[in-house]
Design a protein that fits this description.
Layout: H1 2-30, H2 33-62, H3 69-74, H4 81-86, H5 92-111, H6 122-142, E1 149-153, E2 156-160, E3 168-169, H7 185-200, H8 202-214, H9 220-250, H10 261-286, H11 290-313, H12 328-349, H13 365-397, H14 405-425, H15 436-463, H16 472-504, H17 508-518, H18 520-545, E4 547-554, E5 558-561, E6 564-577, E7 583-596, E8 599-604, E9 607-611, E10 616-620, E11 622-625, E12 629-640, E13 644-654, H19 656-674
Antiparallel strand pairs: 1-2, 1-3, 4-13, 5-6, 6-7, 7-8, 7-9, 9-10, 11-12, 12-13
């Protein structure tokens, strides 16, 4: 049976990873290059093995083999082939196998690099990777076997890895089908992006541990893993953005971020990873913050595993409940062991990680970057406390007390505002030393431009007092901060490109292109910052000026909100059918007209779909989108009143599309920063000389 073959491959992969662990330890202990090389080859062997296991499971999914319980849980005959393939990560067991496949892919790529300069790192990198892989593939072997089959026994149908005594195989006629929420295009891409980000962060962690064990505490490990970290951060960022878009499109609450525990679980390693990306530059440039970087990379790895633990354990209530199971204790033990061992190694090497330079100015770039990182960690602490508080409250009182969005928003809002301010100021400061005078001179012109724009915004609100609400003072502060930072960033682009244009007699756009090509890391960072401030602009709009209403209306009646009028015209109910004529899903689609000032702007079709296979509904909003706002309509319910009518929930979301536009710029900037140079491991010499003068392109 093919399922038995797939499970056998998983078991072999687990044994090979265990062998790689012991071979690397034995080879290092005996100083035997043959054993170390054997561990490397074993690590490489896991990739074709996990590929074979994954392809086997995909074949079972596509071929509708409902004797396999995982196939039964996540697919049905009505699902298209592409959804059956992506169902690999639509359930618990398959997603764990997918995780293992990604890790084996990344580690194989790492072990194929030239190790001539870093031979002493090799056994420890293989060891860390193999331990992580053995844990995740072991979950498939002992807890969540994706190849478990159904067996008919005297007492009924039961899933089991091995045939119970006297049992015969049982194959249901059809499967349950994938959760409708997972059929959205965003959810086809969102989980793999998160997994890519999570798994890729294992690489810098492995090199950090290798650095601690071998005593090579210089910045070599950070230079090797710099682009790995950037790509990991890129994938994790993409995952978070796509998850926000998915929430906006299908969850039916008119928002993009609900401070859900699983959302926060993915956000926390992003916070620590972002801090690491900033501080690692200080180590490379000034030989400082070595302790800080080790702590951050250990923390990021632990949070990656912790995030997966929260997603999979089922200990917290979440909209991601379709991915829960009872494997939490295994995660808890693994997190505890790896974290304790990592911290022990750090304490052992602590004296060797001393800084090579001193921080001489509180306005220097390294000082401002350190403050930036402290803000990131402060946000992380808030998020971590909010996530674990329900668990602590349950242990202490017996009642699980959840922490809602108001807690996070009030606690993190000022911290995010301070981060946006630092995004504008920190890149303008010099390494080693800066003064108030030099920084003030650099930001003067952008600040004046920001003040002029803010005066125009205030005048607009005074002319439209209906827009002013209780959040208005906070919105003004947020807008001033984001606009100032945006102007500073744009001014830096213009100043550097204009200087090169004059010097080289080039078109200013060509000058900017060549500057960015010469220093991708710097100008990629500027582009990321520009994307962030555009995202912040959108967040301020929807969070502080969103309005909503709800009403039950008959045909040709209307609901008004924020100057818009929606008119209910009709309701259609019909079935979508398969090729054989069997019903696939029921569609209840309303037809509404959106108008303003008596002029019809568009016709929208908010709907509710009911999937017969999974017996679950999904809400699809009707949205009229512009750069100014979204008019967002949900079909909540329908019922006969005096005549046939329907209940609608309507949102007005100002500036929300700046969030998605800014996200695209953000991702573009990350691509620029992460794009490899001709020799990605050759970095410029560390700047030891200090200067208070800012130079464009520095």
């Amino acid at each position: 049976m093919l399922a038995d073959f797939g499970y056998g491959v998983i078991v072999i992969t687990f044994l090979v990873s265990i062998y790689a662990i012991f071979a690397s330890i034995f080879g290092q202990f005996k100083q035997s290059q043959k054993w170390i090389e054997s561990s490397r080859l074993a690590m490489q062997l896991t990739f074709p093995l996990t590929t074979l296991a994954s392809l086997t499971l995909i074949y079972l999914l596509v071929s509708n083999d409902y004797n396999v319980s995982f196939v039964y849980e996540v697919t049905s005959r009505t699902m298209p082939v592409y959804l059956k393939v992506t169902a690999l990560w639509g359930g618990q067991a398959g997603s764990l196998l997918f995780w293992s496949w990604l890790l084996s892919l990344f580690m194989t790529a790492v072990t194929l690099r030239k190790w001539d300069r870093d031979r002493e790192f090799l056994p420890w990198v293989v060891l860390v990777a193999s331990v992580t892989l053995a844990f995740f593939i072991g979950l498939n072997v002992f807890y969540e076997n994706p190849f478990t089959r159904f067996w008919q026994t005297f007492s009924g149908v039961t899933p089991a890895t091995f045939r119970p005594a006297g049992a015969i195989p049982f194959t249901p006629a059809d499967g349950n089908g994938l959760n409708p929420l997972l059929r959205h295009p965003g959810m086809i891409i969102h989980p793999p992006m998160l997994y890519l980000g999570f798994v890729a962060f294992v690489i810098p962690y492995a090199f950090a541990i290798a650095s601690l064990v071998t005593g090579r505490t210089d910045d070599r490990w950070t230079r090797i893993t710099r682009r790995w970290t950037l790509w990991a951060w890129l994938f994790l960022s993409l995952g978070l953005v796509l998850g926000g878009r998915w929430a906006y499109d299908v969850l039916g609450w008119g928002g993009y971020w609900g401070w859900d525990p699983v959302e926060i679980a993915a956000f926390m390693p992003w916070l620590s990873g972002t801090a690491f990306l900033h501080s690692v530059m200080i180590q490379e440039k000034r030989g400082m913050l070595k302790h800080w970087n080790m702590i951050l990379v250990i923390l990021t790895y632990s949070l990656v595993i912790f995030g997966t633990f929260l997603t999979r354990s089922g200990v917290l209530s979440s909209v991601h409940s379709f991915a829960q199971s009872a494997i939490g204790p295994a995660f808890f033990i693994f997190i505890g062991l790896t974290f304790v061992i990592s911290i022990a190694l750090l304490i052992w090497r602590w004296p060797e990680l001393k800084a090579e330079a001193q921080m001489n100015s509180m306005l220097s770039r390294e000082a401002l970057f350190l403050l930036n990182n402290l803000l990131f960690i402060s946000i992380l602490v808030v998020c971590f406390w909010g996530v674990i508080f329900p668990l602590i409250s349950e242990l202490a009182t017996g009642a699980k007390v959840t922490v809602g969005p108001p807690f996070y928003e009030r606690a993190t809002g000022p911290l995010f505002a301070a981060l946006v301010v630092l995004m504008g100021i920190a890149p303008l400061s010099a390494w080693g030393h800066s003064t108030v005078k030099t920084l003030g001179k650099a930001i003067l012109k952008p600040l004046i431009a920001a003040v002029v724009v803010m005066l125009a915004i205030v005048a607009y609100f005074l002319l439209n007092p209906v827009l002013i609400n209780g959040y208005f003072p906070y919105a003004l502060v947020g807008l001033f901060v984001t606009i100032t930072t945006a102007f500073i960033t744009l001014y830096e682009f213009w100043r550097a490109s204009a200087a090169r244009s004059r010097a080289q007699k080039e078109n200013i756009f060509l000058a900017l292109w060549r500057l960015a090509g010469r220093n991708r890391r710097r100008y990629g960072g500027y582009t990321i910052h520009l994307g962030v401030v555009l995202m912040a602009f959108g967040i301020i709009g929807i969070e502080m000026f969103q309005t909503e209403t709800q009403g039950t209306i008959a045909r040709n009646q209307s609901i008004e909100l924020a100057g818009y009028t929606m008119t209910f015209k009709d309701l259609q109910e019909f079935d979508l059918r398969n090729a054989d004529g069997t019903p696939m899903q029921n569609v209840s689609r309303s037809i509404v007209e959106v108008s303003r000032d008596g002029q019809v702007l568009t016709t929208l079709y908010p709907r509710r779909d009911y999937y017969y296979d999974s017996q679950q509904p999904m809400t699809i909003p009707g949205v009229r989108s512009t750069l100014q706002d979204d008019f967002y309509i949900l079909l909540v319910d329908w019922q006969p009143i005096s005549s046939v009518g329907a209940t609608f929930k309507v949102y007005h979301n100002p500036l929300v599309n700046w969030l998605w536009f800014g996200s695209a710029i953000f991702i573009l900037g990350t691509f620029i920063a992460a794009w490899p140079d001709k020799d990605p491991e050759v970095a410029p010499a560390r700047a030891r000389k200090t200067s208070a003068v800012y130079q464009p392109g520095d």
